[in-house]
Structure formats: C-alpha cells, structure tokens
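Lab channel / #folding
Pinned by the channel admin:
"Please post every new chain as: sequence first, then the structure tokens as a reply. Keep commentary short and put observations after the output so the thread stays searchable."

First post following the new format, from NK:
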Amino acid sequence: MKGWISRFKAVMALTVLALILSGCGEPFLSTLQPSGEGAAKLLELIILSFVIMLFVFVVVMLIYIYVVIKFRQKKGQEDFIPKQVEGSHALETLWTVIPIILLLILAVPTIQYTFAFEDMSPEVNEEGEEMDQIWIDVTGKQYWWHFEYEDLDITTSQELYIPTDRRVNLSMISDDVIHSFWVPAIQGKMDVNPTGNRNEMFLQAEEEGVYWGKCAELCGPSHSLMDFKVIAVSPGEFEEWVEDMQGVTGEEEPETDTALAGQESFEENCLSCHAIGSSPNKVGPNLTNFADRDKLAGVFDMTEENLYEWIDTKGEEMKPGNLMVSAPYDLEEEEINNIIEYLMTLSPSEVTPESADNGVYIDSDLSDLFPEEEEGEDEEESDEVEEDEDEEE
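Reply from TO:
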C-alpha cells in the first residue's frame, strides 16, 4: 500500500511540475495573444486540435475506468474469463472511422488556412480597387536579419517597420544556411532557404506594437540569439518613417567633433561591411537608424558598455560564430569611443519603436508612397514616342 501511495505522489508531483513548466517562456513570444490575421487563424487551429485531443482523452479514460470497474477480479471468480470480442467488425469499424472523422475535422481548416497564407494577391479597398502592395526582401544571415523595401529605396536590418491594418508581403531567402522567420503574435513560421529558393508570406498587424521575432531553425552556435523585431505603427507614422529613411544618404555630418572623428573612423574601418542609407551592402547589418534601437545585435541592451565590448571583441563571446570576428580592423580605445558617439547620432526619424506604444494613431492610405503617373504625363510620353516614330520613318 505504501509503495502505491509513493508512486501516486511521484506522478502527481511530475504532473504539477509539467503544468508549471508549460507556463514558462517569454510573454512577448506567445502564440496565444494574436495581433494579426495569420496568428489568429493559427490560434483557431491550436484550439481545435486541443479540443479534439481532449475529447479523445476523455473518451479513452471513461472506457478505461469502465473496464477497470466492470471487469475487475471479484472474489470467487478468479478463473472467470470475460467474453472475448476480438474480430468484431462493428468495433473495428468504429475505432477506424472515428479517428478518420477527427482527422478530417482538423485537416479541412488546416488546408484552407495553408492556401490562405499562400495568397499574395493585392488587397482591395472599399471601392473595389486593388491597393498598392508593400514588398520587402528579407535575407537571413548568421545571425541577423536584413530588410530591403522594394520600390521604396529603403534598407535596414534587425527592425522591420510595417503599417497596421495593411498586408506587407515578404520575399525571403538566406545567404548561408536554412533559417526560419517567425513572429508568433502576427504570423506563423516560414523557412528561409539558400541557393536561390525564395519563400513568400505576408504580415498583417491589427494593432500598433513591437512584436518580437525569432529564428525557429537551428542555424549555428548563436541560433538562440538571432532575434529581431517587427514594429507596427499607424499608416501615417509609417509614411513619415519611410520619407525620413529615404532622406538618408550616409553623407550627413554629425554636429560634434568627437562624432565627426568617429564617422571618419567608421568609414575607414567599418563601411566596407556595414552601410548607412539605401546601400545594398549586406555583409553586416545596415545601421541607418542604429540609435533608435534598444537592443544591440538583437538581444543585448543598448548601452555604451555593451557597444564598446561588441566593437572591441568583435562580438566573439557575445554572439559566437558571427562573421564580424574576421573583420580586419584594430582600433584604439579613443577610436572606439568616437565611433560609439557617431553611431548614437544615427536617428533619422522621430518614428521609433516607442511610437508603436504612444497611443497616437495617424491614418493614411499610403498613396503618397506610390505616386501614380498623371494622365497628362502619359499622353505627353505617348506623343513623344509617336513623334520619334514619325521622324524615323
């Protein structure tokens, strides 16, 4: 009896521990608090699959309890053998058909949502007109993310700015190994593959906020440190951010002498890998709006101490396996401090991650980002083409 009680206590302790551990994790990396169309549909599938599994568990346990009580050994019936039902067509049909039905109940919406997530067709406004699409090229690298906004002439890294209430399409590829792009609160996972194999998905945030993303595919020693952010701001703020980022050329001079000296050191030692402005250089992360970030390398607090250690040690211990370790520079303490002061001047826009939580909503149809050619200009161009053809004849 004591042995049975001990085993029961052990099972109960493990059950309680499992329940407690199931609640562990980062609150900002939860699929149970959806803020986007994709995440909401995935939560529906999670709930549906949980209900099905709970139903199966309850039925099995009820049958188990019934059998244990009904067919337990009774006093005086030690040699009694219950009626054997093996080979029963009715039972075999029942426990074959029921799982098939349950799988179909789960499979139908899963397939529907899978095709819905693959639909990259333009959205339609209230007038039935197709809306301009925002396309962003996403490149996964060890161990950071690079973003290029097609048609907007913007390049950035680690922080992806998007407007709320609008689909943003992503075209994703890797420069090295397989990664997986995952923003749990907005959308599901999508593999990011090398060798020219592009995958596509969309993001749509229903609320302003800063949404954390992770690489969900083991990609090397710093895989767990390959974090990034999706910053969803109101359409009007996004439009302002785009205009500010488009105005950065990389040639702007800082105001202080120390920062100016840091800019010179940066250009001599860092600009071959990093870029400021819309340069396509992506050997290292783009630093156009570096000072607006509150995380260094995606995971460390943005402090001068951490930034100094990162530049001085090239992140060798902070992010093992990163390619900056092979950078050829050798900087003195004063040069590093100057570069730090310069980097902290790189804040081209008033729209920052804090803007996503300030409670200010500025509406816009984003039409200013996609100016349409006027009919008069089209007619002039066609007239010029006709005149050229007449001259040739």
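NK: The CA atoms of residues 96 and 298 lie 50 Å apart.
TO: also worth noting, The radius of gyration is 29 Å.
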